Amino acid sequence: MDLDADLEAQIDSWRGYVQRRQAIATADVEELEDHLREQIEELLATGLDHDEAFLVAIKRLGNLDAVSREFAREHSDRLWKQLVLVPDDADENRVRAWRELTVVIAFALGAGLAVKAGLAWSDGGTGLIRNVGLLVFPFLAAYFGWKRRLTLPVAATLIVSFAALAVLLNVYPFATGGSTEVLAALHAPVLLWVLVGLAYVGGRWRWDARRMDFVRFTGELAIYYTLLALGGGVLIGLTVAVLSAVGIDPGPVLADWVLPLTVPGALIVAAWLVEAKQNVVENIAPVLTRVFTPLTIIMLLAVFAVLATAGGLGEVDRDLLILMDAILILVLSLLLYSISARDSLARPGLFDILQLVLVVVALAVDAVMLTAMLARITEFGFSPNKIAALGLNLLLLVHLARAAWLTVGFLRGRRPFAALERWQTRYLPVYGVWALIVVAVFPLVFGFA
Hints:
81% of the residues lie in helices and 0% in strands.
């Protein structure tokens, strides 16, 4: 049952309030939310309006602060045990943890073997570049499908979508190294990540809270994967140094087996760690956003100064424009992660002002880039790359402009922070639609060149 938008906002605020009780795990919060929604639907069926149903349902759940304190007393060691991968106590939780670890290892090994097989099949050609996401992301989606116990319609939708994308990327007669092939290879991971998101939220993609959970998961996954990569790099470096010292060349084994198996497999492991240790990394997220937001503002101001003094906008180097697209995507990612890590009930503060400055500077840079792109199109004509870049920048312009407007309203006390959260999560599917157009339509329009 789809609930009223205002009611969804109330539930989102309640969920944020509950999540701040660290003694209550994410799985418990989801169970409480499901129970709350069931109560609301029953009350709505009796004739109550949305506000009345919400208040009565909350009352039926009991005093949350009292529940949290009682829960913390009974599970006082829970937060410490979150640092353990598999519990030591021989109970049902331990068996479940070992079973999940086995499943994770199986999916990680499957992703690694799929990439290894892809390397052998393509011999390192462009076919692998197009398909590398298809060799890894289905295993990640399968892990979440297993964990969330997806319904048959959702599972079928995922399987059909993965298969359809695989057909598009391998049946289309792309010109080797052509623009449409490169664009398809760059945009296919966006579509694949949308499908992973559908598996992550258990098919409940229309719930704002679930989409924001996926945004939060994406940021935390990047942290964990980076940590695993750094640790693995150090370990491999030490191993190579030792073996080289005794006259053994580990290069072939690293290139043929270690890297193809560990790099994709680490993504599955990182996702499992995020799921298992959410409350641990949540403390890192606010720190990271507060450190990198002012640094990113300084970087954008420097970039804006460079672009503004670069002379004729039509003469701006194409590689610079591509790099600027990457920077704007990074800014958007930082904004989303900052919003997902913020307490939605907290009052506006200095960091919210810094976020507004970040968005405004990003808008200025995007406006200069759009002007440069239009100048290049006017001078040199249309091409797949130019249209794809122009479309992405227009999407970013709309996204950032609306975010700035809502942030101003929040700072002035005219809009709740939940409105800014909803805008972020509801706009994200637009990028998936654009990626689908680039992958499926651009090759047809431009003759696969």
